[in-house]
Structure formats: structure tokens, C-alpha cells
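It is worth pausing here to work through a concrete case rather than discussing structure prediction in the abstract. The textbook approach is simple: state the sequence, then state the predicted structure, then interpret. We follow exactly that order.
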Amino acid sequence: MSKEKACDRMTTTPPPFTIGDIKRAIPEHCFERNTLKSLSYVFKDCVVIGLLYYLSTFIDNPNLPSWAPLILWPMYWFFQGAYMTGLWVIAHECGHRAFSPNEEFGDLVGMILHSCLLVPYHPWRISHAKHHARTNHMTEDEVFVPATRSEMGKFTPYDEMPGVVAFVTRMFYIARMLLFGWPAHLFSHATGRKYDRYCNHFFPSSPLFAPKDRFNVILSDAVLLSVVGTLIYAGQVMGTMWVLKEYFVPYLWVNLWLVLITHLQHTDVNVPHFSANEWTWLRGALCTVDRDYGFLNTVHHHIADTHVAHHLFHRLPHYHAQEATKVVRKLIGNYYHVPKVSPGLKGILEALWSSQTYCRFVENEGDILWYKDR
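Step two, the predicted structure:
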């Protein structure tokens, strides 16, 4: 059993309100999509990214102390990766058609931004929409479907391992998830719904896609390959180390933030998953978690701390999400889960450690299933 008390679990009874009730409580202007305002966030992120790149060109200056690059490069990688994640979030908003009333223009912006971050835009958009349509469904969600007890097989709870072994084991699995989780999802649909044949985000024949999606999948692959080709060319002209230091390491930070944010939004010992008998769209959408990342909330355009509202209204622009969240939280009451962790990034580390420790599997059978560690 988990270390958490049952009284801390999310409310799972069918909600007494409807999605219409929630929408009517939110001011109408929160649903307005403003193209120029959305573009202003793209512009601001690009300016910061450009400025950080410019400053990075001085890091290896021989006039600096020999120890300076050991501090300045990691600082650059962290902040550049954080602001590149902000662009990822805006592309995510394009995929939800929340960027602009002109959805074709939004798709164009999303294609450019996501491709520059090595994401196949339309394939991701399609699979992500399916995730929103089946959130926390035990067999039909496209992301973060928990392992069952039988799939888990034999294992040892962490608190029954020797202290050092337990620590190292958890650190290994956390590092593996943060480093390889995103490419594993793209190339093999890891942690997602189980299909009867090979599934990925690149082949038009993947079970993720319908025949009508074929052109968009191929187009996204082609644009993505052009970016890969540009990076290879840049490596030939500027040098491999230049690409690694200026682009690839920040890109790894983007992947880390992406996996960490989405993992903690959907993985908590007090958040349930539902069988087909109990699942409804509203119950699934409510069973997500807002997380506080401190100053990174703003850098990441509040994708983490307004996630419940986002799952309820995916076309809600991020610049209205905080206002909407205040209304949503008040209206849904006990259906809004507040994690018992410290504020800011300290709380994120606590939540990550807790999820790795206690969120290991769910039972093979049942209609409302909770994470367990033994």
C-alpha cells in the first residue's frame, strides 16, 4: 500500500457540475484567441533566446578565468533550455488551435517552432488530442498509462532495499525517464495506449493515425528532416562542438522539462485512473494536477500551474489560463487536487521523488485504480 492516507485522495464520485457549468462561470474574454498577442510571446521568447546565444559566444573567451566556462556553460544550458521550452509550450498551444482564430496560421507557427525543437508537429498534435479525449482512461489514454501489477512482475519496494541501493535505483529510473522518455514516446509510444502493432509518431501507417492524416504526417516528417539536415550542415560549418554546446544540450533540457512537467501533471499517488465502466471525459479531465515551478511558471507560460483548466478547455490561451484557473478551482472545490509539497522547485523535486517511490503500478482489475508501491 502507499504511504499516503486515503483521505488525501482525489474525490472520485461523479461531479455534481457539468463542463457547461464551469464554462459559464469563466469570463467570456478568457476564451478569446488573439493572434498578435500570441505572436508577442513568440517574439519575446525568441529575443531572449537570441540574447542568451549572443552572450554564450563570450563564454570561451580566453580573457575569462579558466573556471568561468565551468559555471557559465551550465547556466546557459539551463536558461536557454527553459526559454526554448517556452517556445515548445506555444507550439503546443498551436496544436490545440488556441494560438489564433486562424487555425492554418497557428499550424504554420506550430510547425516551425516544433520542428526546430525536433518534434513532428502534426503527428504529436493528433496523438495529443487523443490524450485529451481519453485522459486517465486505463486502456485508451495515449500517455502515462500505468503498469498493472501483473505487468510489473516481481519487484522489491524501495523501503525494503538497502538505503544506498534504493537511492541509486530511484535516481537511475528518474534519469532514464528524463533523458530518454520523450524520444521513447515518439519512437515507440512508450507509456501510451497499447496497440496490436508497432506504433510511433513518424510513420503514416502507425495506428495513431487515420488515412486522412497521411499528408500531414508526411509533411511534418519532411519539415523535421530539413531541420535535422540544417543541424548537420551547421555541424560541418561551425563544428560539432558548437552544435552540441549551443543547441543540443539546451534541447536535452527541453526534453527534460517536457517529460517532468507532463509526468507530474498525470502521476500522483492520490490521482486515480478509471476503467471503461467508470471513466467519463469530465472525470478524466479533472484528475490532473497543477504544479508550481516557481519563476519557471512564467518562463513556461503557465503550462504547469494551470493544467486542470487546460484539460477542461484546451483552446483557452495561456495568457488567460491563470484567471480561468482561479474560477475553476473555486467552482470545482474538492475535485481540485492540491499536492502536499513545498512551493516552487523544491516541491517539484519532492513530487518527483514521491512519484518514483510510490507510483509503481495499479491493480489488474477494478473500476477506480490507484497507484501502489507493493
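Step three, interpretation. The chain has 14 helices and two strands. The CA atoms of residues 332 and 349 lie 27 Å apart.
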